[in-house]
Amino acid sequence: MKRVGILTGGGDCPGLNAVIRAVARRSFGRGYEVVGVRNGWRGLVDADTTALTIREVSGLLPRGGTVIGTSRTNPYKVDGGVDAVLRNFAEAGLDALVAIGGEDTLGVAAQLHAEHEFPVVGVPKTIDNDLSATDYTFGFDTAVWVATEAIDRLHTTAESHNRVMVVEVMGRHTGWIAVVSGIAGGADMILIPEEPVSIEDACRELQHRHERGKDFSIVVVSEGYELEGLADAGDVDQFGHVRLSERGVGAMLAHEIETRTGYETRVTVLGHTQRGGSPTPRDRVLATRYGMKAADLVEERKFGRMAALHGDDIVDVPLAEATATLKTVPPDWWEVARAFFG
Ligand code: F6P
Asked: pTM to 2 decimals?
């Protein structure tokens, strides 16, 4: 082992730089060189890499985003993409790759490993927390923190104006961010893809709350919540995902609530604020532990594996397992959330 590559793919999230730092520091300690592959898989398709020295990985812990860039490039959807990845990896003199990503990036890593014995290990990243085989992905805690802070702020203005405030959060096809920030922020209604509460029932709960003398409400809605009559809009990316933010579920929900209940309603879409900025201490620590584990998997040549959190332990699991199913919000989490509705 001489040269270790690192790439970050998919949507960025807080903590990516902390993983890069940990992988690099652990690898430098073993006398290895570390190379950053720029912009996710695109860097291997296009042979775009950069040396990472102790200087480049200094000061990274609190820094959001990723210093080596990211993209949603899928080499399996690019003409000659997989051959280019294999060729450029060899030409860069790389012996192993640490791929930091979510379902898509790690899906490519799993496939390359299965088909070509590609020497890759994975680190689970995404604000959505929707990867199976790990209890938590890094980035999620920061997104929940941002959303909770927004809910707290919206409470005071909702109360002053006697309004309903709809907060649209990310999460793709799972409601993790909505449920956890909603519980933390004391949301009066949470709408997620996993639990199809109808608009009638949601409005009934809000009316019940107002009849009890509460003249404002906070509604958290996940971008992937299925609202009757709302269609997907926009292009799909190379992994087949539609841009859920284009659907405008928050705006349509706010309109429906106002029309059906007569309560004045406003919407706030948190969007990419949930992905930007400095990671929470919890995410910095989780990212660091994942990075250390990934470097150790490389050292042990345990390719095709991913660092994962089980309880409080960092373990390793097959990459294929991590991307096999979507980790949705389980019913017991939902029960906690809904106990405070209405
Ligand atoms: O997967 C992370 C995520 O932020 C999702 O929650 C969201 O649906 C999507 O990425 C947004 O992607 P983009 O940055 O391409 O708009």
From this structure: 0.97
**Pick the catalytic residue: 12, 104, 128, 130?**
128
Amino acid at site 138? F
195 close to 150: Cβ distance less than 8 angstroms: no
Give residue 125's pLDDT band: very low, low, confident or very high (50, 70, 90): very high
pLDDT of 84: 98
Q: pLDDT tens digits, residue range 50-105?
A: 999 999 999 999 999 999 999 999 999 999 999 999 999 999 999 999 999 999 99
Bridge partners, 315 (sequence order): 308
Q: For ligand 1, say whether the CB of 206 is within 6 Å of any of its atoms.
A: no
Contacts of 52 (CB under 8 A, 6+ apart): 6, 20, 24, 34, 35, 36, 68
User: Bridge-partner residues for 96, per DSSP?
Assistant: 4
Mean pLDDT of the chain: 96
Q: In angstroms, what CA-CA distances link 291 with 19, 33, 100, 144, 305?
A: 5, 16, 9, 22, 13
Give me ligand 1 centre to Cα 11, in Å.
6
Task: Let me know if 263 is exposed, middle or buried by CB neighbors in 10 A (0-12, 13-18, 19+).
Answer: middle
- Positive or negative CA dihedral for 253, 256, 258, 261? negative
Using CB atoms within 10 A of its CB, is residue 202 exposed (0-12), middle (13-18) or buried (19+)? buried
Identify the residue whose tokens are 């006398």.
31
Share of the chain above pLDDT 70, in %: 100
Q: How many angstroms does the Cα of residue 242 sit away from the middle of ligand 1? A: 10
